Amino acid sequence: MEHTKIKIGIVDDDLLFVQLLKNYIDHNGEYQVTLTSTGGYQFLTEDSGSLDILILDLRMTNGDGLEVMSELAKRETETKIIVLSSFYRRSFMGQMLKMGAHAFLPKEIELEELLAVIKTVHHTGHYFSNDQIDVMRSQLSNKLPEFHAFSKNELTDREVDVLRLVCQQLSTKEIADSLFISPKTVETHKTNLMIKTGVKNMAGLVIYAVQNQVIDPNEIVLFDK
């Protein structure tokens, strides 16, 4: 049986960049670019519900990335967003997470590393680089507002177990195997965690865990290139 490819969309107003990136991604057997757009407004009129990953620029003349993320948040889409921008600043990391991004990368990133990030986000829900974790340790835990009306003491022991493993970037199947429960039960716990904490994605759960000292930031597992 043919392995299901990761379906990717690219939204960037640099047409040459879009074409080159699409060609590169499509030549890798695990990925397929199924949608491209040169602006946020155009993208939002497309049927993008089947996308696994959206690679999104921030600054575009016809609908910027922030507008796209805001609209997708309202639609409660399952598509994971990788913001890829020449306007990259580590200090923007907190805002990107709050807006719903699952990864935030500079356009100078190596193509092979980008593919690795796509795979990580697809399987674990988020990606943080070493320097971004440093920003989280020094800024986010102290300065971001609380996401929720629950304290860590109101999470069940099993929910805390799942949250810790999410922070270690384990997949749903790996969490299920580790805790001797079904993948469906893991997904239920993840859903309950997001409802209780008020976050929108797995990246938000990691921030919640750091803010509320459920996990030491040093325990967060990082991925190499």
UniProtKB/TrEMBL annotation:
GO terms for biological process: phosphorelay signal transduction system; regulation of DNA-templated transcription. InterPro entries: CheY-like_superfamily, NreC/VraR/RcsB-like_REC, Sig_transdc_resp-reg_C-effctor, Sig_transdc_resp-reg_receiver, Tscrpt_reg_LuxR_C, WalR-like, WH-like_DNA-bd_sf. Keywords: DNA-binding, Phosphoprotein, Transcription, Transcription regulation. This is Two component transcriptional regulator, LuxR family. GO terms for molecular function: DNA binding. SUPFAM superfamilies: C-terminal effector domain of the bipartite response regulators (SSF46894), CheY-like (SSF52172). Pfam families: GerE, Response_reg. The modification 4-aspartylphosphate is found at D57. Coiled coil: none annotated. Residues 7-122 form the Response regulatory domain. Residues 148-213 form the HTH luxR-type domain.
